[in-house]
């Protein structure tokens, strides 16, 4: 069976504007694939296609060989988890409870039902709690389990958001600009974390990363796909992409345009 995420010949048009044009890419389990490109290249649109916010006009998606028709509200059930720009944590829940919400789909009586005081299975809740604590521990933040997210530094909150995504045991993890708002030290730590992500389980997940921060992309990705005006202009290892003249042209062109504006 074909493993991981595959996008084939994806096209997205907004009226007369082509945001994605014949974009194909694969993300195998255990691999980190980055999508980069100058402003307006189509990165967010690509991310939104995989999350189900945008339905492509052309092409198809599969996850582990099965046709994928993502819908934002049922991503977890499809084996997809994502982190958002900003952290999107629930302010009224502790760190541990936030991470537990990531895995509620695995519980018979939902954790959310428990929060609402509805009848629940104690065994389910204990299992969720243990699993959430394990994930927090793996990410080195179990000490913050009982804290309110709002009291923690941004870099820790981001780890919590990542823990919540991982608690779902995703087949595919989508990271949207995880370096946004972080300082250099935090980015170095994040890089280490992302490099370890797909391999941390016996059943590794595929990781798709959309990110502006070039150093992070270069240091964590096994493969990079470069978009420009909605088309794939280069794909390969970080070294291959770095040395590709088409990539330099695309970025330089963007800089010249910005300077002229
Ligand atoms: N909902 C929409 N309606 C119309 N045009 C859109 C819409 N979303 C994106 N676009 C256009 O599609 C193109 C690709 O945009 P997209 O946001 O995907 O690029 P990006 O690479 O994420 O850019 P940035 O780095 O600036 O975030 C742009 O020209 C943008 O203006």
Structure commentary:
- With 261 residues, this protein is an alpha/beta fold.
- It has two domains: 5-79 and 170-260, 3-Layer(aba) Sandwich (Rossmann fold); 91-163, no CATH class.
- It is built from nine helices and ten strands.
- The strands form two sheets. A six-stranded mixed β-sheet has the order 6-7-8-3-9-10, sandwiched between helices. The chain has a four-stranded antiparallel β-sheet with strand order 2-1-4-5, with helices on one face.
- Helix 2 (95-101) packs parallel to helix 5 and helix 4 crosses helix 5 (154-167).
- It is globular and about 55 Å long.
- It starts with a strand and ends with a helix.
- The relative contact order is 0.18.
- The structure holds adenosine-5'-triphosphate.
- Adenosine-5'-triphosphate is lined by residues 14, 17, 19, 37, 39-45.
Structural topology:
Layout: E1 5-14, E2 17-27, E3 32-36, H1 43-51, E4 58-63, E5 66-67, E6 80-83, H2 95-101, H3 111-115, H4 122-138, H5 154-167, E7 172-176, H6 184-196, E8 206-210, H7 214-220, E9 223-228, E10 231-236, H8 238-242, H9 245-260
Helix pairs in contact: 2-4, 2-5, 4-5, 6-7
The structure holds adenosine-5'-triphosphate.
Adenosine-5'-triphosphate binds next to β2 and α1.
Pfam families: ABC_tran, BCA_ABC_TP_C
InterPro entries: AAA+_ATPase, ABC_AA/LPS_Transport, ABC_transporter-like_ATP-bd, BCA_ABC_TP_C, P-loop_NTPase
GO molecular function: ATP binding; ATP hydrolysis activity
